[in-house]
Amino acid sequence: MKQYEIGKTGMKVSNLSFGASSLGGVFHNVREAEGIKAVHTAVDNGMNFIDVSPYYGHYKAEIVLGKALKDIPRDKYYLSTKVGRYGKDGVNLWDYSAKRAIESVYESMERLHVDYIDLINVHDVEFADMRQVVNITLPALVGLREKGVVGHVGITDLQLENLKWVVDCVPEGMVESVLSFCHHCLNDDRLTEFLRQFGIKKCPKKLVISLLFCNFIVD
To answer: Is the dihedral of CA 212, 120, 58, 64 positive or negative?
Structure first.
């Protein structure tokens, strides 16, 4: 399986990677044992990047993934999760405050049974006051990066304009990766219009598919 580096993070990840939202039963009911087996099979076959979020299944995806990761050496995978978007009792919640972002990282590590996160993302910035993301959320995550709690910091969103706005408003190096979805597929290739704006000169081999129709831009 081919690997590409995400930006300048040093993380060389498999071009087909494991999106763990399904472990939370986001699309349909999933048997926990089968979900755990799927994670083991993916890693055994060369997938070394796993993306999840506390929002997926209202924490369930992280819980099930954590059970799977207990039996996998930590150096066999890179782990990405998110802050900002949550759910409880079937209700969506958003909180992009510094306090909640920091708490969320430590809560995710506990659910995932790891002592650091390779990549922490601000989840779906379109639901936030993006000025808060720039001035509050991202600096809080950078603080965790400086402490070694997280390795790298990124942002996610459906709207490509939002991603570009945030990147343009923060100091160079604060945002190390961007993740979008549904814009690099057969019926929507809008992402290609933004590649140069994100510093990417070529298209097809410079994208890593993380989830179905989700794209990490890599350098």
So the answer is: positive
